[in-house]
């Protein structure tokens, strides 16, 4: 009798634990369904990480923590050193000669810093900043910079070089703009949660380089609400890092085609950001758009016409013409622009999320 009662008690305890687990799983599933999950996709250097920094400013804490600022300070130091190293090496490849007497000596100081160096202390950077500032003023480096579409150089290097005097101060504390301009390649999948109007928005950022793209479909587990696909519209005259021959626009369109026509994403809101409009405005007078896209018949200096042409290139690869497709012209480093654009996107995303909930 005792054994029978003991057995019944055990069964009762097991059932209660099982019911508790079931309730917890049900609650987790409910929370996941209510959560808005957004994949940030696009080629490398399209502005995905910058967009996420803007979300921190607009919908997060409004500022970065001291630990984050310290990390970004290191990234900015590295951006300055690595960018000048790239310019020096490109100058050598172009066969250009230094215009200033001390430039060779300054360049050698920069080249002595290992490319793999991840930590540069403030005193070392202050020492190097004098060389960086002087080299940036050398006409030879300026000529090399003007040919930057022929090699791989981060967009923000001019901004940092122009501000090298401020950045090299011993008490330098990066501003939000400095942080937005900093560049570090995303090598892994990262998730960022923001509560916007009391609704949890989970942004999933994956690497944009070719080697990272196999991870993209792993991010889709049936509860993705929307895809934000970012495209750097200023890169019409540049090639990708991986093979140094494929045009970046062609690469982005091919990538977009695999996303927009994928059956797993057929019921997901798709929003295209024609990003880096500010850099496109700056580049069009200097680099002929029709040289790279001879089928373009519009005004080669008109930013809106050029972006509309590029938009039509993306739109042309969509097989399902009934599917809603949204797009915006953006400048990811412009906080007010991203604030306005994301407010528009938010309406579309929440409508899609509501439809998904009603279908479950």
From TrEMBL:
InterPro entries membership: Gprotein_alpha_12/13, Gprotein_alpha_su, GproteinA_insert, P-loop_NTPase
Single GO term (MF): GTP binding
A single Gene Ontology CC term: cytoplasm
Cited SMART domains: G_alpha (SM00275)
Keywords: GTP-binding, Magnesium, Metal-binding, Nucleotide-binding, Transducer
GO biological process entries: adenylate cyclase-modulating G protein-coupled receptor signaling pathway; developmental process; Rho protein signal transduction
PROSITE patterns given in the database record: G_ALPHA (PS51882)
Binding site for GTP: 45-50, 155-156, 180-186, 205-209, 275-278, 332
Residues annotated for Mg(2+) binding in this entry: 49, 186
Pfam families per the UniProt record, alphabetical: G-alpha (PF00503)
SUPFAM superfamilies attached to this UniProt entry: P-loop containing nucleoside triphosphate hydrolases, Transducin (alpha subunit), insertion domain
Organism domain of life: Eukaryota
Name of the protein: Uncharacterized protein
């Amino acid at each position: 009798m005792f054994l029978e009662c003991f057995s019944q008690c055990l069964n009762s305890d097991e059932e209660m634990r099982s019911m508790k687990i079931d309730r917890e799983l049900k609650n987790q599933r409910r929370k996941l369904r209510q959560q808005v999950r957004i994949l940030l996709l696009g080629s490398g250097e399209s502005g995905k990480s910058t967009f996420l920094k803007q979300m921190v400013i607009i919908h997060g804490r409004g500022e970065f923590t001291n630990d984050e600022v310290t990390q970004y300070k290191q990234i900015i130091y590295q951006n300055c050193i690595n960018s000048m190293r790239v310019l020096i090496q490109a100058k050598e490849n172009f066969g250009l000669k230094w215009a200033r007497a001390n430039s060779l000596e300054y360049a050698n100081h920069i080249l002595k810093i290992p490319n793999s160096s991840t930590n540069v202390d403030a005193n070392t950077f202050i020492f190097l900043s004098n060389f960086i500032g002087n080299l940036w003023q050398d006409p030879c480096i300026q000529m090399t910079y003007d040919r930057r579409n022929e090699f791989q150089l981060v967009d923000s290097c001019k901004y940092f070089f122009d501000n090298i005097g401020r950045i090299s101060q011993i008490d330098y504390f990066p501003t939000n703009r400095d942080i937005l301009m900093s560049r570090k390649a995303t090598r892994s999948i990262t998730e960022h949660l923001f509560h916007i109007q009391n609704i949890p928005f989970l942004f999933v950022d994956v690497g944009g380089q070719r080697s990272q793209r196999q991870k993209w479909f792993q991010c889709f587990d049936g509860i993705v609400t929307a895809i934000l696909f970012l495209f750097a519209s200023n890169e019409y005259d540049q090639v990708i890092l991986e093979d140094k021959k494929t045009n970046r626009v062609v690469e982005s369109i091919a990538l977009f085609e695999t996303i927009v026509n994928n059956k797993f994403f057929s019921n997901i809101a798709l929003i295209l950001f024609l990003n880096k409009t500010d850099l496109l405005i700056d580049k069009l007078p200097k680099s002929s758009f029709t040289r790279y896209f001879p089928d373009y018949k519009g005004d080669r200096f008109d930013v809106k016409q050029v972006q509309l042409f590029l938009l039509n290139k993306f739109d042309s690869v969509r097989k399902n013409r009934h599917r809603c497709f949204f797009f915006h012209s953006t400048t990811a480093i412009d906080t007010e622009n991203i604030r306005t654009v994301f407010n528009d996107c938010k309406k579309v995303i929440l409508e899609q999320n509501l439809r998904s909930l009603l279908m479950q």
